[in-house]
Write a structure and sequence with these properties.
The protein is α+β, with helices and mostly antiparallel strands. The protein has helices at residues 34-46, 55-64, 70-97, 152-161, 177-196, and strands spanning 102-104, 127-128, 135-136, 139-143, 148-150, 170-173. The chain has a 4-stranded mixed sheet with strand order 1-6-4-5. Strands 2-3 form a two-stranded antiparallel sheet. The structure holds zinc ion.
Length: 207
């Protein structure tokens, strides 16, 4: 592409502007990028950089999209499984700490704009952790009256130090435990059925 720069996670850019500039970015990636996506997003999180989009949202959308190719599903299946296990284990830690209040996140269009922390208008429905700025698509812990937003990891850190705050916080989630389990199970079944019945190659025309 002429006059275009492609920026992926693990890449940095430096720009010097000496005047009025108009630019437009288009994000896309090759299939191979998925192999590095998990570690790339982990690095972004550890450096407290806001992610341009949610990896979880991308992977979960790909899982439910019938157009996703079998080889891509094969690549993302272990990542989805790790995300599921990590998500459920963090929720259990919070529950065991005493955080019993929870609520399903309303449909994205209906969310209250006041509590949103976003940097990109296109991602205006996602919560961003006050500490690490992670995009909290699957779940988030909030203290509504103070507009405090934590990812699960930072909610655990906070509530371990200040247990008396438990009564003010609430877990908001996109998928409950049963839905997360079902999503992973369905993906595994889909992959198994594809293995059992691979696509037939087109028949050769007889002469
Ligand atoms: Zn965080």
């Amino acid at each position: 592409m002429v006059n275009s720069f492609l920026v992926f996670p693990r890449a940095f850019t430096s720009t010097i502007c000496c005047g009025y500039t108009v630019s437009e970015s288009v994000y896309f990636a090759h299939q191979q990028w998925l192999a590095n996506a998990e570690s790339a997003f982990k690095e972004i999180r550890e450096s407290c950089e806001p992610a341009v989009f949610s990896l979880e949202r991308l992977l979960f959308s790909m899982t439910s999209d019938n157009r996703t190719q079998p080889e891509v599903l094969q690549m993302i299946h272990p990542v989805i499984e790790r995300i599921r296990q990590n998500e459920l284990s963090l929720r259990k830690v919070l529950y065991d700490l005493g955080l019993k209040s929870s609520e399903r996140l309303p449909h994205s269009d209906a969310r209250d704009g006041k509590r949103r922390r976003t940097r990109n208008p296109d991602e205006a429905d996602d919560y961003e952790c006050d500490v690490c700025r992670a995009n909290c698509y699957l779940s988030v812990v909030v203290r509504p009256e103070q507009e405090v937003v934590y990812c699960l990891n930072h909610a655990i850190q906070h509530l371990q130090k200040k247990k008396r705050d438990l009564k003010y916080f609430k877990l908001l989630y996109t998928y409950d435990q049963a839905e997360l389990n079902e999503l992973s199970l369905k993906l595994a079944e889909k992959l198994n059925s594809q293995k059992r019945s691979p696509k037939k190659s087109p028949k050769k025309k007889s002469i």
